[in-house]
Design goal:
It contains 8 helices and 29 strands. With about 450 residues, it is of the alpha/beta class.
């Protein structure tokens, strides 16, 4: 893992959002490709073009249950004057030995079965009497219950053009075609295509393993009782879910108490399963900000640029941030603030792009659009400080959800966008056009 991050010379440097993100993305590199079984490759990014080795379908086959016939034998057929053909047998999907259909003959054929030699078209069973002699039918009887259906005569009540209801060999893809491009994220349809062309394994970049942990002696796990001064840990759940939503394999670690040695030990234990580590809480300027205390001096003296750098960013919420690499493999670590809103906004701006960079994707960021601000009062922002306000976006308009510094998780749950306030703007009036990061 590269550790080529750019560090400012002085501690009081106020980083911009873009500077911090550039530093992160300069450090994070795509994971090395591996060969995976198809289902294990779901959600991964393909690193090679995949060429079709065999055409799909590999042979002409029927798209209907019905009868394989010659066109001339059913020309002019009607309910008043049906064509009467000899049934020479069944053609089922997967059947190796095929019948030959001669003049005046028909073969009962099932969906997906190869078009037998001599046959030129397929008439659906609904256009026939099904061999029963009692007028049009709606389907075939099961062979196990009525084996005589594969012999005798069939009345055909409608003509069929050549190759009607026939799926031609190679009509889906042809041998030599490119099935999938490098850079494709493998979802269910892509997995299906790979299986259909006979690929059992595929070369991909694996989904990154992300370890998420909250810090704070006040944090209690859900389902446990709350004591005085305690709150439930929501951040680790939110960020683990967000990491999975971004495409990672995410592991949640229970909240770590405000003890520097315990935190360092927990991080060391977790490094074995981490391509990226995310902590939340303990990065500000308080006496109990344990992440800052524990990780400020963990860098390798022989490797310039390693270790965790704690910064102030020109953004609200989310001013205090930490970033760097840790451990023998220089695993990237992002230390986010503990405020639930600050933590989630920071994830969207910095962690999500890092995860997608590890996956080898080119499209790292959430989509952005322009919207009109709809609010009861103006939005204010300290001059020179970029502000990211949660918003509810619909019909080209966006309304703030909660206040800029709100800690309310309930307000966060209503948000489907981030409203981006420019750095050089002190306030925004209702009706102003703003930039919006779409979360959904």
């Amino acid at each position: 893992m590269s550790s080529a991050a750019t560090r400012p010379a002085h501690q009081d440097h106020l980083w911009s959002v873009d500077e911090h993100l550039e530093d992160i993305l300069a450090t994070v590199r795509p994971l090395e490709p591996i060969e995976l079984q198809l289902l294990d490759a779901q959600g991964c990014v393909l690193v090679e073009d995949v060429t079709v080795p065999v055409s799909l379908p590999p042979f002409d086959n029927s798209s209907m249950d019905g009868y394989a016939v010659r066109v001339a034998d059913v020309a002019g057929a009607s309910e008043e004057f049906p064509a009467v053909l000899d049934v020479v047998g069944d053609v089922a999907a997967g059947q190796a030995e095929l019948l030959h259909v001669g003049p005046g003959q028909a073969a009962r054929i099932m969906t997906g079965a190869p078009l037998p030699p001599g046959a030129e078209t397929v008439v659906p069973v609904e256009w026939t009497d099904g061999g029963l002699g009692e007028g049009p039918v709606t389907g075939m009887q099961a062979r196990a219950l009525s084996p005589e259906g594969a012999e005798g005569h069939v009345h055909v009540y409608r003509p069929a053009e050549a190759r009607a209801h026939v799926r031609a060999q190679g009509s889906d893809v042809r041998a030599g075609d490119r099935a999938l491009d490098a850079g494709t994220v493998l979802g269910p349809p892509q997995i299906a295509l790979l299986a259909a062309i006979g690929r059992g394994t595929v070369r991909v970049r694996p989904r990154p393993r992300v370890v998420v942990m909250s810090t704070g002696s006040e944090l209690v796990q859900p389902d446990e009782g709350l004591g005085t001064g305690q709150i439930y840990d929501s951040n680790s759940f939110a960020l683990t879910a967000a990491a999975r939503d971004a495409g990672a394999i995410a592991y949640r670690v229970g909240a770590v108490a405000d003890d520097a040695e315990t935190l360092r030990s927990t991080i060391e234990d977790q490094l074995v399963r981490a391509d990226l580590m995310v902590t939340t809480g303990g990065v500000s300027v308080g006496a109990y900000d344990v992440v800052k205390e524990a990780l400020t001096s963990v860098g390798d003296e022989d490797e310039p640029g390693t270790g965790i750098d704690f910064r102030k960013l020109a953004m609200q919420p989310g001013k205090p941030q930490g970033f760097g690499t840790i451990g023998p493999d220089h695993t990237p670590l992002l230390a986010l603030p503990g405020n639930p809103v600050s933590s989630y906004v920071s994830f969207e701006l910095f962690v999500r792009p890092a995860i997608r960079a590890l996956m080898g994707l080119d499209d790292l960021h959430r989509p952005r659009t322009r919207a009109t601000l709809r609010a009861d009062k103006a939005l204010s922002s300290p001059k020179g400080r970029r502000q990211f306000l949660r918003g509810s976006h619909a019909d080209g308009q966006v309304a703030p959800v909660g206040g800029a510094g709100s800690h309310l998780v309930a307000a966060l749950a209503q948000a489907d966008a981030l409203i981006v306030v420019p750095e050089d703007v002190e306030s925004l009036e209702p009706g102003t056009e703003v930039e919006v990061v779409l979360l959904g």
